[in-house]
């Protein structure tokens, strides 16, 4: 590049400046593109973590619902008065 500037004079200097500007722009664009790719990878990890957290919340909600449904079905006869009534007796004294 330096030889081209020396032999062409002002035109060579302008060409050299244009080449440096072009190189700088390409390097900046490549750096920007790489940054976007890296941030996309991070976004995918975050999406996966959020998705996993939501699935865990759904599983816990389903387990809670099943637990309380079963608890209600076991307790309902006693609360509504439809459970069998057992008489408690105490054994008599033997003499």
Structural summary, described in words:
With 95 residues, this protein is mostly helical. It is 81% helix and 0% strand. The chain has two helices and no strands. The chain has helices spanning 2-8, 10-79. α1 (2-8) packs across α2. The longest helix has 70 residues, at 10-79. The N and C termini lie far apart (124 Å). 0% of the residues are buried.
Care to give the gist of this entry?
With 95 residues, this protein is mainly alpha-helical.
Radius of gyration: 40 Å
Count of helical regions: 2
The major pleated sheet works out as: none
Which descriptor suits the 3D outline?
rod-shaped
Q: Pick out the low-confidence regions.
A: none
List key phrases describing it.
single chain, about 100 residues, mainly alpha, rod-shaped
Topology at a glance:
Elements: H1 2-8, H2 10-79
Helix pairs in contact: 1-2
């Amino acid at each position: 590049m330096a030889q081209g500037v020396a032999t062409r004079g002002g035109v060579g200097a302008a060409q050299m400046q244009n080449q440096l500007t072009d190189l700088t722009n390409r390097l900046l664009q490549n750096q920007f593109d790489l940054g976007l790719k890296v941030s996309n990878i991070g976004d995918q990890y975050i999406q996966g973590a959020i998705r996993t957290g939501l699935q865990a919340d759904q599983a816990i909600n389903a387990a809670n619902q099943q637990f309380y449904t079963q608890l209600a079905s076991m307790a309902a006869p006693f609360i509504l008065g439809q459970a069998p009534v057992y008489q408690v007796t105490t054994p008599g004294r033997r003499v």
